């Protein structure tokens, strides 16, 4: 429900607002799409063990790297941010950048580097669409019921 | 849940029936400790004691040890004997509480079971006799348990708190169970139901039927709800009314829902109209959850699949109930069997997420039954 609210807020306030930290990374994004296909194709594959319940983001299922966990934290921080900024209608782009940079220290390095290049604002494109896709992915993520019922023993015995 | 040698140990009063039933079927003794130790009145309750007595009746050579306070129970199962029996069920729980377990055990008796149960036939807690009659019996038939005298007969109805109902359950025995493949639930074909009323105005039944139909008629025309008004000696000791609904699918599966009025002197007065409507909505919820078996019988079918011949059985269920999840864990403790559990979502996304459960039966065979 929270996510839907955020989408609405994006609509009403300035469009160029970071709504989803986990959708801004193109590399990661491509990864997820690929994984979505695997999910359907081979369920018996190792991948399915890593897949998690819909309560977590899809990223948690893709790989358990620290890297993936961080954007999730970012997500909640930025949610507050969105709420804060949406009240003040007029907001400079620079201010926004600064705000983001403050939070950015947990981000991957090359992200800040890319902001100076031509594709700097690429992550801001199609935010609404990306948000919608992330939402749908959450909805469709398949929980590993066997693990939920039997605990971790299920994996070992398999 | 650590098993110590041959005997399985459990803690607490939860899933009491599950443990005793599985113990009886697997032949493994159980020790249950810490039964309501922190309760004001510690130890097993009367309805549980009544259940233990019932288990003792249907078996031969069962050893039961209960400590002084009733907080600890040792149960060493005997052989399932069966025969013609009768049992006065405690009125704290309905007959359904006892009948559910009997349905699990009855096919494996030495002699076909024919048992008269007395007590509360319909209450708000346990599946009623009506629902078990309409759903569990056809389910057992799919596993090859069938015969002339396979029935549940309601002779008298009894509502809580007084009870006074009486039913007869008879079940033939089987040496082995057939493996089953229940993967396509089909679509809802018709809805049947029973609106019962005892020691209240006979008009109440009609009011329930009318309100339930007002909800269900929008979806399909083939609805028939009987009214069952019992009088005199057949109406038990307490007034009450209720409704049980069963939806049958094109593939011959049954989904059920039910509601009963508040027991006399407890809670507010329930309007028959509200009861009918709410029960119809509960049935819609059950249809939304879907699957080949409704949530009441989930654990029964999983048990029957486990006990089947050494062949693959599959069943498609709606979302697993917490009771079923614990039952799956117990099946692993007693029979070392683990199900393959897969979530299934369909493209049309109709209803709740389904779960496909697959297992290979342990090849349980009824040793007590004499081979003719």
What would your notes on this structure say?
Chain B: Pfam families: RTC, RTC_insert. Chain B: Keywords: Nucleus, Ribosome biogenesis. Chain B: It is found in: Nucleus, Nucleolus. Chain B: One of its GO terms (biological process) is endonucleolytic cleavage of tricistronic rRNA transcript (SSU-rRNA, 5.8S rRNA, LSU-rRNA). Chain B: Residues 183-287 form the RNA 3'-terminal phosphate cyclase insert domain. The complex is a heterodimer of chains A (158) and B (372). With 158 residues, chain A is an all-alpha fold. Chain A has helices at residues 2-12, 26-41, 47-50, 58-62, 66-87, 93-103, 109-114, 127-140, 145-150, 153-157. Helix content of chain A is 63%, strand content 0%. In chain A, helix 1 runs antiparallel to helix 8. Chain A contains 10 helices and no strands. The longest helix of chain A has 22 residues, at 66-87. The relative contact order of chain A is 0.20. Chain B is α+β, with helices and mostly antiparallel strands and 372 residues long. Among the domains of chain B are: 1-80, Translation Initiation Factor IF3 (2-Layer Sandwich), CATH 3.30.110; 188-289, RNA 3'-terminal phosphate cyclase, insert domain (Dihydrodipicolinate Reductase, domain 2), CATH 3.30.360. Helices cover 28% and strands 29% of the residues of chain B. Chain B has 8 helices and 19 strands. Chain B has a 5-stranded mixed sheet, covered by helices on one side. In chain B, strand 5 and strand 6 form a beta hairpin. The longest helix of chain B is centred in the last third of the chain and has 18 residues, at 272-289. Chain B is globular, with a radius of gyration of 20 Å. Chain B starts with a strand and ends in a 12-residue tail after the last strand. The relative contact order of chain B is 0.13. Residues 1-5 of chain B have low confidence and may be disordered. The A-B interface holds A 43, 140, 142-143, 145-146, 148-150, 154, 157 and B 320, 325, 328-329, 332, 338-343, 345, 355.
């Amino acid at each position: 429900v929270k996510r839907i609210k955020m989408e609405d807020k994006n609509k009403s306030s300035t469009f160029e607002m970071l709504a989803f930290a986990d959708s801004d990374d193109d590399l990661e994004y491509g990864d997820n799409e690929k994984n979505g296909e695997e999910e359907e194709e081979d369920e018996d594959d190792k991948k399915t063990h890593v897949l998690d319940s819909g309560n977590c983001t899809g990223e948690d299922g893709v790989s358990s790297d620290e890297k993936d966990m961080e954007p999730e934290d970012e997500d909640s921080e930025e949610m507050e941010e969105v709420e804060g900024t949406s009240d003040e209608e007029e907001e400079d782009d620079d201010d926004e950048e600064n705000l983001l940079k403050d939070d950015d220290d947990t981000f991957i390095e090359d992200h800040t580097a890319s902001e100076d290049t031509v594709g700097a604002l690429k992550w801001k494109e199609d935010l609404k669409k990306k948000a919608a896709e992330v939402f749908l992915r959450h909805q469709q993520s398949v929980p590993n019921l066997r693990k939920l019922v039997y605990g971790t023993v299920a994996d070992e015995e398999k | 849940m650590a098993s110590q040698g041959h005997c399985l140990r459990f803690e607490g009063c939860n899933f009491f029936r599950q443990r005793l039933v599985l113990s009886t079927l697997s032949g493994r003794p159980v020790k249950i400790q810490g039964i309501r130790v922190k309760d004001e009145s510690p130890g097993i309750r009367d309805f549980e004691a009544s259940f233990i007595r019932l288990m003792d009746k249907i078996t031969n050579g069962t050893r039961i040890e209960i400590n002084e306070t009733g907080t600890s129970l040792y149960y060493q199962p005997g052989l399932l004997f069966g025969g013609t029996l009768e049992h006065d069920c405690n009125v704290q729980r309905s007959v359904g509480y006892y009948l559910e377990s009997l349905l699990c055990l009855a096919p494996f008796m030495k002699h076909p079971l024919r048992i008269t149960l007395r007590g509360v036939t319909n209450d708000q807690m346990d599946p009623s006799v009506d629902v078990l009659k309409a759903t569990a019996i056809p389910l057992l038939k799919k596993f090859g348990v069938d015969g002339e005298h396979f029935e549940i007969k309601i002779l008298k109805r009894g509502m809580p708190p007084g009870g006074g109902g009486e039913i007869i359950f008879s079940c033939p025995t089987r040496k082995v169970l057939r493996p089953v493949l229940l993967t396509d639930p089909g679509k809802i074909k018709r809805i049947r139901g029973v609106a019962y009323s005892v020691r209240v105005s006979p008009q109440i039944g009609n009011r329930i039927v009318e309100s339930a139909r007002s909800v269900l008629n929008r979806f399909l025309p083939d609805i028939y709800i009987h009214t069952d008004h019992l009088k005199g000696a057949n109406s038990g000791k307490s007034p009450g009314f209720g409704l049980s609904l069963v939806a049958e699918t094109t593939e011959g599966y049954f989904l059920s829902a039910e509601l009963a009025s508040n027991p006399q002197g407890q809670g507010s007065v329930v309007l028959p109209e509200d009861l009918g409507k709410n029960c119809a909505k509960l049935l819609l919820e059950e249809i939304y959850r879907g699957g080949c078996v409704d949530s009441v019988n989930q654990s029964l079918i999983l048990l029957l699949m486990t006990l089947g011949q050494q062949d693959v059985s599959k069943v498609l269920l709606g979302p697993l109930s917490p009771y079923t999840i614990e039952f799956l864990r117990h099946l692993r403790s007693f029979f070392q069997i683990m199900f393959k559990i897969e979530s299934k979502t369909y493209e049309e996304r109709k209803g709740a997420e389904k779960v496909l459960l697959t297992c290979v039966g342990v090849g349980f065979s009824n040793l007590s039954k004499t081979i003719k």
